């Protein structure tokens, strides 16, 4: 097991929901407020920290993000920004949602911000029918209710079909 | 109900019956169907009716008829997420020998299995046999991108081929495990809020129509930005009378549930003088725990701030542009303010000094092109950034307790009458800024204490 090979304070092991283990440098893990709190509260870093809600593929992405941000010095803000914008670029919605849930769970604010922004950008300027399709939201309004909602926010729907 | 349609042994079938079934399967209305030139498959038609096209083991059933009249075929917002949709698409394309236009628009966000469809279209067999004679326009929009597509294949057969790739799909992301599940409505509320806060208010409000769950999601967002874009859109869309505009803002506020932490109001470029409306909004905000408030009144005559703002105990950040600030009858707030930005603000009698004296936590202060400053004493133990630019009616300026100041910018940009009174000498001034890392002064400021510069030499 990875943790037994390099069992020192500078690394810790994270375990994904599907059982894969990731050996992570401590300063990378500290990007996550959740992990930071766990370490602060004297969680031995020799232990394997289970992350039961995050699958291996998502965790790998999350850790990639954390590593980039932990390693970049503050003077490279421009580089980080372009990394951020590339990071989510071609991601499909399923992966993006996994990521936003993981960022929320692990309390990684920067990642949560960019993922939420990406989803927001997907929704805005689109007709609601299309948004429903993209996210598989089932329309449970009756035509009367739908008309009432429209009327309630009439200012927002003017000019939209 | 959809019936199975099978040809007889000779492959002969009742084409009317097929059309009837198709009509039902795709919920087409009569008009659409009579005009066979255009068969549009509505998105999200679901897999149930499509089953009709497949054999029991999921294989492709031969479509019993050819749609010889069909010229234009559009697949809209396609999500090729299962074999049924793919088979159906291919089957239909195969069955239309006289197509001249084929449009396939993939769903912009779900990367699924477009490949079989594209591969099929690229296959010479497909082109040779069926379509090369007629198809003149093949348009495939990969909004979400696809890793590769050999464009040369089809080019010999079509006059016009449009492939739009907005992005190329390079990574080897596994497929979504969400399938056709509603992937957004069940997100934790804080994430939904975070998403809604990251789009214009109008777009957020329009999510109310998605489903009953979404009806009031948007009303809990704690940040409202009613900026130029908001007002311009609202005005442009409905030739609005002022009343309507005010009504829209009021509706937004009234529907609110939960505190409004941030409110940005940029009054629009229109003859908008509903001062009492603004008063009402401010009153509402002040009672709903406003923390961060911006009022940009650049383009109108100065607005006199409603005094309720000075009683907001939760207020941490205030930014005012082109307003009048007068001493209120009651001043019970401001003790939590960390950021103050005043631009083109006319202060009443010693009002600025009074406000600052209450703001012990202040970290950032900017006073730009303001008037009525009077005797200004900066007594702010936590102040990090200070900008004082181009103000008029400044009687004196002195620094007490500014040891934490990092960024300091003081400029007059014009000759002013001397800063008299308790204005410190330059030496005293600099001595009061032990941690300053960024200092910006202009000659007019220095000029006032020209004779005192010499003091520096003797330090």
Keywords:
heterodimer; A: 161 residues; elongated; B: 459 residues; alpha/beta; ten-stranded parallel β-sheet; 15 helices; 21% strand; disordered N terminus
Written account of the structure:
The complex is a heterodimer of chains A (161) and B (459). Helices cover 58% and strands 8% of the residues of chain A. By secondary structure, chain A is mainly α. Chain A has a 3-stranded mixed β-sheet. In chain A, helix 4 crosses helix 6 and helix 6 packs antiparallel against helix 7. The longest helix of chain A has 16 residues. The radius of gyration of chain A is 20 Å and the shape is elongated. Chain B is of the alpha/beta class and 459 residues long. Chain B has 15 helices and 17 strands. In chain B, strand 7, helix 11 and strand 8 form a beta-alpha-beta unit. The N terminus and C terminus of chain B are likely disordered. Classes of the chains: A mainly alpha (161), B alpha/beta (459). Chains A and B meet through helix 6, helix 7, helix 8, helix 9 and helix 10 of A and helix 7, helix 8, helix 9 and helix 10 of B.
* Contiguous runs where pLDDT drops below 50 for at least 5 residues of chain A: 1-8
Could you tell me the strand content of chain A as a percent range? 5-15%
| Number of H/I helices of chain B | 15
Whole-number average pLDDT of chain B?
A: 67
Domain F-box (chain B): 181-234
InterPro entries (chain B): F-box-like_dom_sf (IPR036047), F-box_dom (IPR001810), LRR_dom_sf (IPR032675), LRR_FXL15/At3g58940/PEG3-like (IPR055411)
Pfam family, one (chain B): F-box
Organism (chain B): Rhododendron griersonianum
Give a short overview:
The complex is a heterodimer of chains A (161) and B (459). With 161 residues, chain A is mainly alpha-helical.
Mind sketching the topology for me?
The complex is a heterodimer of chains A (161) and B (459).
Chain A: H1 2-5, E1 11-15, E2 21-25, H2 26-29, H3 33-40, E3 48-50, H4 56-71, H5 77-87, H6 93-106, H7 109-123, H8 128-135, H9 143-152, H10 154-157
Parallel strand pairs in A: 1-3
Antiparallel strand pairs in A: 1-2
Helix pairs in contact in A: 4-6, 6-7
Chain B: H1 15-25, H2 30-34, E1 38-41, E2 72-78, H3 83-94, E3 101-106, H4 115-122, H5 124-131, E4 137-142, H6 152-155, E5 160-165, H7 189-197, H8 201-206, E6 223-226, H9 228-237, H10 242-255, E7 262-266, H11 275-286, E8 292-296, E9 303-304, E10 317-325, E11 339-347, H12 351-358, E12 364-368, E13 374-379, E14 385-389, E15 394-400, E16 407-411, H13 426-431, E17 438-441, H14 443-448, H15 450-457
Parallel strand pairs in B: 1-2, 2-3, 3-4, 4-5, 6-7, 7-8, 8-10, 9-10, 10-11, 11-12, 12-14, 13-15, 14-16, 16-17
């Amino acid at each position: 097991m990875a943790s037994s090979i390099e069992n020192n304070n500078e690394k810790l092991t994270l375990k994904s929901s599907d059982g894969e283990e990731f050996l992570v440098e401590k300063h990378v893990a500290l990007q996550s407020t959740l992990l930071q709190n766990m370490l602060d509260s004297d969680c031995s870093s020799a232990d394997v920290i289970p992350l039961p809600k995050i699958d291996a593929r998502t965790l790998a992405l999350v850790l990639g993000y954390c590593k980039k941000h932990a390693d970049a010095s503050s003077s490279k803000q421009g580089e980080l920004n372009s990394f951020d914008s590339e990071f989510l670029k071609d991601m499909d919605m399923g992966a993006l949602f996994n990521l936003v849930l993981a960022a929320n769970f692990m309390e990684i604010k920067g990642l949560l911000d960019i993922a939420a922004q990406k989803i927001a950008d997907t929704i805005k300027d689109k007709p609601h029918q299309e948004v429903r399709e993209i996210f598989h939201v089932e329309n449970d309004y009756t035509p009367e209710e739908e008309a009432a909602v429209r009327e309630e926010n009439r200012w927002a729907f003017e000019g939209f079909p | 109900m959809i019936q199975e349609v099978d040809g007889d042994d000779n492959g002969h079938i009742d084409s009317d019956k097929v059309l009837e079934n198709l009509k039902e399967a795709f919920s087409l209305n009569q008009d659409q169907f009579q005009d066979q030139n255009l068969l549009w498959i509505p998105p999200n038609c679901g897999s149930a009716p499509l089953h009709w096209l497949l054999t029991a083991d999921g294989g492709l059933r031969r479509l019993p008829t050819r749609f010889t009249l069909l010229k234009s075929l559009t697949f809209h917002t396609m999500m090729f997420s299962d074999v049924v949709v793919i088979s159906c698409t291919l089957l239909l394309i195969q069955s239309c020998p006289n197509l001249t236009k084929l449009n396939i628009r993939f769903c912009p966000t779900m990367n699924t299995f477009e490949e079989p469809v594209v591969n099929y279209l690229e296959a010479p067999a497909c082109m040779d046999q069926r379509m090369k004679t007629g198809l003149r326009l093949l348009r495939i929009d990969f909004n979400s991108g696809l890793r590769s597509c050999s464009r040369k294949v089809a080019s010999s057969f079509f006059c016009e081929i449009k492939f739009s790739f907005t992005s190329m799909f390079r990574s080897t992301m596994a497929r979504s495990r969400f399938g056709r599940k509603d992937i957004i409505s069940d997100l934790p509320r804080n994430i939904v809020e975070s998403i809604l806060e990251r789009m214009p208010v109008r777009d957020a409000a329009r999510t109310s129509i998605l489903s009953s769950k979404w009806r009031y999601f948007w009303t809990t967002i704690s940040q409202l930005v009613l900026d130029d874009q908001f007002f311009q859109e609202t005005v442009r869309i409905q030739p609005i009378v002022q009343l309507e505009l005010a009504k829209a803002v009021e509706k937004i506020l009234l529907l609110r549930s939960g505190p409004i932490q941030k409110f940005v109001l940029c009054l629009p470029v229109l003859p908008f003088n509903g001062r009492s409306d603004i008063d009402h909004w401010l009153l509402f905000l002040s009672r709903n725990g406003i923390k961060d408030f911006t009022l940009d009144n650049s383009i109108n005559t100065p607005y006199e701030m409603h005094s309720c703002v000075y009683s907001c105990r939760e207020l941490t950040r205030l930014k005012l542009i082109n307003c009048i600030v007068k001493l209120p009858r009651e001043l019970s707030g401001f003790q939590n303010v960390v950021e103050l930005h005043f631009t083109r603000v006319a202060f009443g009698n010693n009002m600025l000094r009074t406000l600052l004296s209450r703001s012990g936590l202040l970290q950032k202060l900017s006073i730009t092109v303001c008037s009525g400053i009077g005797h200004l004493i900066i007594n702010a133990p936590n102040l990090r950034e200070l900008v004082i630019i181009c103000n008029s009616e400044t009687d004196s300026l002195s620094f007490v307790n500014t040891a934490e100041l990092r960024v300091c910018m003081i400029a007059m940009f014009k000759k002013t009458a001397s800063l008299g009174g308790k204005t410190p000498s330059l030496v005293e001034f600099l001595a009061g800024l032990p941690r300053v890392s960024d200092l910006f002064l202009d000659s007019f400021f220095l000029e006032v204490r020209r004779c005192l510069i010499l003091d520096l030499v003797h330090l």
